[in-house]
Structure prediction request, 351 residues.
Amino acid sequence: MYPVIEWKDGQVIMLDQRLLPVEEKYIVHHTHLDVAKSIKHMVIRGAPAIGIAAAMGIALGVAELQDNPEIKNLAVLATKFKDIVSTLTATRPTAVNLFWAAARMEKIYQLFKNDYFTLRSELIKAAVQMDQEDFAINQRIGRNGQKLLKTGDTVLTHCNAGALATAGYGTALGVVRAALEAGKKIKVIAGETRPYLQGARLTVWELQQEAIPVTLITDNMAGLVLKKDMVQAVIVGADRIAANGDTANKIGTYALAILANYHEIPFYVAAPLSTIDTGTVNGEHIPIEERDPAEVTHFRDQMTARPETKVYNPAFDVTPASLITAIITEEKILTPDFGCAIAALKGLKQK
Ligand code: MRU
Prediction:
């Protein structure tokens, strides 16, 4: 499978997802500032993938300091490290994986800050390990989630919660992959996901790479598709799951959840534990990124509305826990009451 992100010879290499499906091009990043720019401008996107990118960016930032004569001064290192972390965490506010990854790197900094060269290699090791772990976690999410599907099912998904949004394999699309690996016949319907078209450009592309049957619809066709019984499950990813189960995901997810509930079709969220933010009590407290109006008035360089048009462009919405049938994690499938299920799961993890 195509690598989404890779640490290679002291550089961070990413597939430029902005160009898909037209062109497959890799960008080599030499500095943490380059990595931060790539996260902000969507070269890489998807909650787990941007977490890995942030971790690699932090490792890169610390590696950049190697020729700095002052680096043995702990106060200088502390200031530099803080700057690197804040540059990377200032890129996108909604996906909690970014902050989770930065916190993990900060713990390593605290352990090894007295020895710059050990710190540098431990940060690199941790970032690479995070990438490898994420792949394995997605496979476990897939193995758990595939039990919810039966042969012949068609899954409706939104945005891209696939290999391209993670270290590979995917969360929502990981469930589909695992079901196929278990010998079930599964088809996918992908919503195009206006305005950035992650569904049309990325989900369709990645499924086609493996000849997984996929049909593309525009977002406003979802109601009809559900009404006509063309879908047996809706499965989406998540950018942040609050302590009570409220889930932020790509704009349009909330509307799909309402449709699924109305038509009594199960609505599943597939996400790693790193996406669950017990520090956020409910969805109202999840910061929602607003993006450039040009994403709505233009497709690439093509104008679709006058540039001076007033635009509202939130990148995510929050689906209340009450509309979610189950949350599929690498540990287990959580069912309502999500607040209790999440507390129990996190409590067990903390022991
Ligand atoms: O703006 P994006 O493309 O980063 O948004 C991605 C999503 O909303 C995904 O569904 C989510 O991050 C889960 S990815 C496994």
